[in-house]
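Quick illustration, no need to memorize.
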Amino acid sequence: MRLPALFGLLVATASAAVPPALQAALDAFQAEPPPGWSFTQTTVGDGKSTVERCDAARPEFERWSLVQQDGRAPTDDETRRYQENRSRRSRGGTAPKLTSQFDLATLETLSDTAERATYRCPLKRTDPGDKTAEFIRATIVLHKPTRTIESLELGSAAGFKPTFGVTIAEMKTTMTYSLPAAEAPSLPQKVTVRMRGRALLDKSLDADLTVTFCDYAPAKR
């Protein structure tokens, strides 16, 4: 068999391992709220909280506003710094699509019913210097009737040392999404991040962060 034909056979075999409903859900998946939807985002962690509003009807660099800082109305200085930080972040590059990092060639099926299926797979390195991806597994919960990803967890399979002097005991990010309805697509609901680890001189790397999304509304233009 010639090499091009053999290569094509291997690609076809790998692709066939991914259930069509899962592939469709991954192709359509958006980790963040989709364009055209306004929403409120609340972030809590490290003893601080921030409430922001994204108005999709406004121009790109004016969409975000600071509603609350640590449970109160923000000061003028906090609002100014917030807008400056948001402006810098908006000028940043586009992050790679999360699902492109999934190594679907080694996909495992953890459970499978008529309504939902749960899959797990490792991550691929984003670049040669990536020291973390090999220790992380993606757990995907698929709602089969709507071909929607209901939840996605990126978690360490065990403790690991990504670099000299750093030990990670646990690393986990969990994202949940609503099911699509007649009036709305699947939308992010909550993101939780948990980190447990130590660095040089016994410095704690422990961190917990929660981001919730609410008050979704289609943009009025």
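The longest strand covers residues 166-177.
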